[in-house]
Design goal:
The chain is mostly helical. The protein has 18 helices and no strands. It is globular and about 60 Å long.
Amino acid sequence: MPHAAGGRYPLAVLSAGQFVVVLSTSVVNVALPQIRDGAGLSDTGMSWVVNAYGLAFGALLLLGGRAADLAGARRVLTAGLGLFAVASVAAGLADTAGVLIAARTAQGVGAAAAAPAGLALVVRFHPPGSARARALAVWGAVSGAGGAAGVLLGGVLAEVLGWPWIFHACGLGAALVLGATLRRVPADPAPPLGAAVRPRPDLLGAFAVTASAASLVHGVTAVRTHGPADPYVLGPLAAAVLLFLLFLYAERRHPAPLVPPGLLRRGLVAPANLLSALVGAVWVGLFFHLPLLQQEVLGFGPLAAGLAQLPLAAATMLGSWLAPRSARRLGPHRNLAAALLAQAAGFAWLALLSTPATGPAALTGPTALIGLGLGAAFVQLTGAAVGGVPPADSGVAGGLVNTTRQLGGAVGLALTGTLAAAVTGGDPAAGPAVLADGHRAAFLLAAATAAAAAALTPLLFRRDPAGTRPDPAPDHTADHTAEGARR
C-alpha cells in the first residue's frame, strides 16, 4: 500500500500504540517497592511483576504477528489494544500478588497482539527506501523513549496518586489509541474473491514456546533460593527444553507455523534477532536495577528516581534519530557495533558509580551514554530484522524481533537478579553498601553482554542467501534487501 494511503496520522497513531506497549514494560519499575508493599509481594514476586508481562508479551508476539498476517493487522491491533486496556485497569484494582501477576500476564497478551500488528501496518503504509527508513526511525525512537519515559511516569504517579494509577494510566492510554485507530488507520483490505480459506493460528506452538520461556525463567530465578543442582531448578530447566522441542514439532506440522519456513534464512533476520535478544537482556535489566539503585542505595523517592531518568529518555530518542545519519557515515553494521560498545562502556561506568556516596548528577553521563547506544541499536536491529521479508510475512517478522528482545530481557533479568541476590545474600533489607554491590554486579554483567553483542556484529556482514550485501545507506537501513521485498 503506498504511503499516501496511510498519511501521517496512521504513523502517529501506530507509534502512540507502540509507546503505550513499551511504556508498560518499564512503568512499574520505579514503583516496585510501593507495589511490593501494597500487593504483598515477596522479593521473587517483585521480579515476576516485570517478567509476567515480559514473558507473555515476548512469547506470544509470534502468534500475534502470524495472526496479523492471517486475520488482518488492523483487526488484531484493535483486539490487542482492547484487551490491554481492560487488563491494565484490573492490575490497578488488584490487592493480592496472584491477581496482579495474572493481570500483568493479560496485559502482555494484549501487547503481543498490538505490537507486531502495528509494525506490520507501518511497513505496509511505507514503501521500501527512505520513507520506510524514516518511519522505522520514528518507531525506534518511540520504542526506546517509551521504556525510559515509563520510569519517569511511574515515579510521578506512584508519588502523587499511588501505584494503582500506574496501571490505570496505561489503560487510559490504550483506550485513547484504540479510538484513534478506529478513526484514523485504514481498514484491512478485503480478501480477493476465491481466496483460499485461511488456516487456524498455531495455538500449540504458541503454548509450547510460552511455557518453555516461562519454565526457563522460573528455573533460573529458583537458583536464588535453591542450589543450581536442586530439583526445583533442574526440573523447570528440563521442562523448558522439552517444551521447546514440542514447539519445533508443532512448527513442522502446522500449515501456518508461527515462524514461516525459511524466514530465518531471509536477509539478515537470524543474526538481527540474535543480537536483539542480547540488547533486550541489558535493556530490561537496566530499567529494573537502576530505579532500585536510586531508591535503595541513593535514597531517592519515586518522583526523584523518575526525574533522574530524563537524560536517559532524551539520549535514547537522540540515538534513534541519529541512527540513520550515523549509518550513512559508518555503515549500518559499524554503526551498530559502536552503539553496542557505547552501552558496554556506559554500564561499566555505571558499575563504578554504584556506591552510597554517589551524587544524583553523577549518573547522568553513564545513563546518557547507554541511552544513545540503545536508541541506535533499536533502529538498526529492527530495520535489519524486517528488511527483505515479503509483505505477507511482515507481521511475523516484526513479532519475531520483538519476541527475541523480550525473551532475552526476561532471561537477562532472571540472570542479573539472581547474580545480585547471590551478592547480597537475597536480603532486601540489607544495608545500602551491600545492595550497591548487588546492583554493581548486575551492571557489570550487562556490560559484558553488550560487549559480546558488539563482538558478534560481523555476523551482519555475511552474504544473505540471495547473494546481496547490506546497503550502508540510511535509506536502506530498514530494508537491506529491497529488491527481494518488491518481488
